[in-house]
Write a structure and sequence with these properties.
The chain is an all-alpha fold. The chain has four helices and no strands.
């Protein structure tokens, strides 16, 4: 299944509530909306979407790029026990 980019407009409060709910579910806002649409349209939600892992196209307010070296370094040292 190929993905296409779609832009929607939401009022601020609805977007904030949707982001909170997506966070509770551990998914991106985009994945949350995809799941809602799939459920409403009677389709199985895809679990193999790589955008879920990387949250492509939506930072969700985070800026991992600013601290990526430290983050990866901590992860590497934690994994090796050093």
């Amino acid at each position: 299944m190929g993905m296409v980019r779609t832009q929607i407009s939401l009022d601020r409060e609805l977007r904030n509530r949707a982001r909170r709910r997506a966070g509770e579910l551990g998914v991106s806002l985009a994945e949350y909306i995809r799941r809602l649409l799939a459920r409403d349209l009677g389709e199985e939600a895809s679990r193999a979407d790589p955008a879920v892992v990387f949250d492509l196209g939506d930072s969700g307010g985070s800026d991992i790029a600013a601290s990526k070296d430290r983050t990866f370094g901590e992860a590497a040292h934690g994994a090796t026990g050093s």
